[in-house]
Amino acid sequence: MIEKRSAIQDAMKYAKLLFMRGMVTGSTGNISFRVGDAMLISGSGSCFGMLAEDSFACVTSAGGILEGHPSKEWPLHLAVYKSNSEYGAVIHAHSHYSVLFSCLRGINDNVKKLFAYTPYLAMRTGGRVVCVPYHRPGSEELFRAFDARVKGNCRVYVLQNHGVIAAGKDVADAFMVLEEFEATARIMKDICGYVENDYVCIG
Q1: Would you say 115 and 122 are in contact if contact means Cβ atoms under 8 Å apart?
Q2: How many other CB atoms are found less than 10 A from the CB of residue 94?
Q3: How many Å apart are CA 184 and CA 189, to the nearest integer?
Q4: Fewer CB within 10 Å of terminal CB in the chain, N or C?
Q5: Domain range holding 110?
Q6: Phi, psi of 121 (to 5 degrees)
Q7: What does the pLDDT look like over 119-146, one tens digit per residue?
Q8: Virtual CA dihedral for 180, 183, 185, 188, nearest 10 degrees?
């Protein structure tokens, strides 16, 4: 199936690019894309820098695992796809400045500042970024909290003290959204100059 293979190769290409830019490390992060009525998602414990064609698991739109061992956070991806049929790819990363942003106190108020200095994130997202309260990564509590906040018109989700999720029409588009958020979070940090008391600890 040429279309499926082409999509896998695109996912491998952009995943490796994210890894080489230091936006994911080790086996962190996950990437997925739609194939018909299912999604292919990077496997549990896989590394963005070393994905191969057999590194992806297949999960149906109903949440059934057809093939492989998917990333434990596959329900987050599935929730995004269910929210908007136009989304064809989702990337979750723990990129440096996005994670710093996710640890800020009063994170919902700080979202407004993301759009205060340059127009580019607003152009990519329509000015919509949704924040999700902290729960342990991969936990049912996180999945429920995410489901309660997912919106069909949102392309960026900030998981508090965790990272960011970006959605797009395809892998390239989701990559661009993720990069723009990371760049904007970096600009905001440089302008605002956060100190230790600006951050919330999970302990």
Answers
A1: yes
A2: 18
A3: 9
A4: C
A5: 2-198
A6: -65, -40
A7: 999 999 999 999 999 999 999 999 999 9
A8: -120
